[in-house]
Model the fold of this input.
Amino acid sequence: RIASVLLRKTVRWSLRNADSSLSVLYTLCHEVFHQFQWHLVELYNTESDASYSSLSDSEVIEKYRLELYDGSPTDYTQYYNQLTETDARNYAYLRVLFYMGEITANS
Done:
């Protein structure tokens, strides 16, 4: 699968080039969220149109589908501002904060 290959390549790159463990953790969380997005789109692609459109998140999932399957824009600003990217960044940021809280609370 393309998503799995991209995840492995991105994580390998991050491990080689990261300036800190937080950077690696952030990248892992960001890329794991992209995997979730791919799986979510795949799941809803298997549903019938009627059941799909009745889901509360169907609009978000449709935006994910368009961004993930129709390719990335060539302009960095457009790429950066895609919903798939903003959601992945937000998820990664919140997870890093959570894990750092867990680490400091237990040390």
Observations:
- The chain has six helices and no strands.
- The two ends are 39 Å apart (CA to CA).
